[in-house]
């Protein structure tokens, strides 16, 4: 956007970018440097020796994977239904789902707490997976429906003439044609469910089922405020996320943008 | 319509239950809650912490939205200008988006502590007079929360603006330059209006985001010191779970819900009106 033909101008631009990036880099440096203070790599060894990291990661993987699966299947069915099927008053239903976009999760805490206790699913993965999926779906339905709207009706008419039922049409037309938006849905849901903090905090008590977002607090009590080890655990938690992002850079950026552009 | 059943089932059921709870004076476990009708709502309107939390949310929204938009926009413009190592800068700005705020919270508590890295750095670059216990005083705790939020989300605004700028017709830019427009002038008169759709979408996200704020203030400052960083989210949590005033918390939740809906509708309506005025 800026045009800099001469060398000094180029240098100034470069300098501005570098200065602007410093505040973004600083916390990351603090994190790594703090985790190596004191006993150095020994901090990491101490964290691993507690042995809890594996179970926390396993819980996060299970919760994220189930949430993604539920969100994906339900979003696709809903997008197809809203976009192509004739359902009475479907626009009203669609707006009811969209209104849920503004819903802050903290509002749901008490009723969820009471409901999960009553149903006996408190302290299980379900207690977190279902609300997470429900909070994610309004967003994903919105973007997926717009995408399915773009699939020409003629394709469905042709399929029907060839004798395909609604479900066959869904299976062989909608699913293959929505792959680009499916990637966005997966990334959005992954970030949403992996980073979820409040719901696991309230709805899961058993340490064997808690997620990685609760890990720093677990270590605060474990190491009685030994900051270096808490930071080491933060680094260990952040690394998989950063690696996933670096490997799928384009996918992450596209996925998140698809969520925000209407 | 299984999706519909799940969303409407869980979410609307919860709202309904919250609405019912909000009329009770209940501690969450006692078998005989007393109904107080609208008493909880009357109490809210006279609750100074509630108004403080609203006020914090408004300021928080204005500051973080402005900062994120401005920084994200300038970054996007700069990185569209053939600077060296563009990908590296991009990765650094975007990385905070994927890290959970809960994971970064201990890092920020450490960084802004009285003997933390920020003060250490300030001391060593000759700005020692600026160093202070950032999180322990009411006057600086809020700016720290805002900084963390901006740090967290600029990556997103940046990526969106970056994509939007890629769609601006290069010939328009070329024409402006030929007519002698300066860099700044082009940026203000052509690029900024060209990405207006993105700005509106981000505005909407920020309003909802500001009302939903919970993770960062809860984990970094626990709403303190002296309620200086209390938001509706943290207040509801504190009232409902540790203090077990379930009825009052539910009433606060309903207020938050109404505010969120009104906020989102207000932004949407304003955006629409502006669209029809300018004929976009």
Automatic annotation (TrEMBL), chain A:
One cellular-component annotation, GO: plasma membrane
InterPro entries: MetI-like, MetI-like_sf
Subcellular localization, as worded in the UniProt entry: Cell membrane
UniProt feature coiled coil, ranges: none
Record's keyword terms, sorted: Cell membrane, Membrane, Transmembrane, Transmembrane helix, Transport
Membrane disposition: Multi-pass membrane protein
Transmembrane segments: 12-36, 56-80, 92-113, 125-144, 181-204, 230-252
Superkingdom: Bacteria
Pfam family, one: BPD_transp_1
GO biological process: transmembrane transport
Ranges of residues in domain ABC transmembrane type-1: 57-248
Main location: membrane
Family: Belongs to the binding-protein-dependent transport system permease family.
Name recorded for this polypeptide: Sugar ABC transporter permease
TrEMBL record, chain B:
Pfam families: BPD_transp_1
Stored SUPFAM superfamilies: MetI-like (SSF161098)
Positions of the ABC transmembrane type-1 domain: 54-267
Gene Ontology terms: cellular component: plasma membrane
Gene Ontology biological process terms, A to Z: transmembrane transport
Record localization: Cell membrane
Keyword rRNA-binding: no
Ranges annotated as spanning the membrane: 53-79, 91-112, 144-165, 186-211, 246-269
Topological relation to the membrane, as annotated: Multi-pass membrane protein
Domain of life (superkingdom): Bacteria
Keyword annotations from UniProtKB, A to Z: Cell membrane, Membrane, Transmembrane, Transmembrane helix, Transport
Organism, as annotated: Acrocarpospora phusangensis
Gene3D superfamilies: MetI-like (1.10.3720.10)
InterPro entries in UniProt: ABC_transporter_permease, MetI-like, MetI-like_sf
Family: Belongs to the binding-protein-dependent transport system permease family.
Protein name: Sugar ABC transporter permease
């Amino acid at each position: 956007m800026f045009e800099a033909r001469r060398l000094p101008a180029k240098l100034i631009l470069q300098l501005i970018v570098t200065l602007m990036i410093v505040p973004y880099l600083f916390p990351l440096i603090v994190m790594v440097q703090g985790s190596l203070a004191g006993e150095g790599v020994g901090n990491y060894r101490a964290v691993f020796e507690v042995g809890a990291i594996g179970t926390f990661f396993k819980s996060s993987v299970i919760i994220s994977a189930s949430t993604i699966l539920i969100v994906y299947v339900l979003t696709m069915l809903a997008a197809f239904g809203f976009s192509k099927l004739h359902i009475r008053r479907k626009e009203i239903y669609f707006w009811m789902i969209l209104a849920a976009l503004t819903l802050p999760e903290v509002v749901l805490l008490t009723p969820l707490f009471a409901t999960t206790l009553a149903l006996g699913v408190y302290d299980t993965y379900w207690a977190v997976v279902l609300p997470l999926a429900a909070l994610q779906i309004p967003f994903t339905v919105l973007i997926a429906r717009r995408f399915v709207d773009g699939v020409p009706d003629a394709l469905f008419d042709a399929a029907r003439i060839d004798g395909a039922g609604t479900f066959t049409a869904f299976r062989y037309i909608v699913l293959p044609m929505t792959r680009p938006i499916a990637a966005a849905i997966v990334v959005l849901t992954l970030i949403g469910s992996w980073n979820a903090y409040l719901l696991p905090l309230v709805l899961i008590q058993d340490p064997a089922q808690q997620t990685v977002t609760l890990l720093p607090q677990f270590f605060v009590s474990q190491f009685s405020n030994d900051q270096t080890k808490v930071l080491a655990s933060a680094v260990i938690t952040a690394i998989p996320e950063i690696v996933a992002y670096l490997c799928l850079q384009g996918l992450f950026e596209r996925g998140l943008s698809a969520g925000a552009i209407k | 319509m299984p999706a519909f059943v799940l969303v409407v089932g869980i979410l609307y059921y919860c709202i309904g239950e919250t609405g019912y709870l909000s009329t009770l004076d209940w501690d969450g476990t006692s078998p005989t809650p007393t109904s107080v009708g609208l008493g909880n709502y009357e109490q809210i309107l006279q609750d100074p912490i509630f108004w403080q939390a609203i006020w914090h949310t408004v300021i928080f929204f204005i500051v973080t939205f402005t900062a994120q938009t401005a920084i994200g926009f300038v970054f996007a413009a700069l990185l569209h200008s053939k600077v060296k190592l563009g990908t590296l800068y991009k990765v650094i700005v975007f990385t905070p988006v994927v890290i959970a705020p809960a994971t970064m919270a201990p890092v920020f508590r450490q960084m802004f502590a009285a003997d933390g890295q920020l003060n250490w750095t300030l001391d060593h670059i000759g700005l020692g007079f600026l160093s202070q216990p950032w999180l322990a005083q009411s006057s600086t705790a809020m700016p720290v929360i805002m900084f963390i939020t901006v740090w967290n989300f600029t990556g997103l605004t940046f990526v969106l603006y970056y994509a939007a700028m890629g769609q601006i017709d290069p010939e328009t830019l070329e024409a402006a330059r030929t007519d002698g427009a300066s860099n700044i002038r082009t940026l203000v008169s052509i690029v900024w209006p060209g990405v207006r759709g993105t700005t509106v979408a981000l505005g909407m996200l920020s309003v909802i985001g500001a009302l939903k704020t919970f993770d960062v203030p809860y984990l970094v400052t626990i709403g303190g010191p002296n309620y200086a960083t209390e938001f509706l989210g943290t207040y509801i949590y504190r009232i409902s779970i540790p203090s077990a005033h379930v009825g009052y918390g539910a009433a606060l939740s309903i207020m938050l819900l109404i505010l969120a809906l009104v906020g989102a509708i207000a932004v949407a309506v304003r955006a629409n009106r502006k669209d029809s005025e300018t004929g976009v």
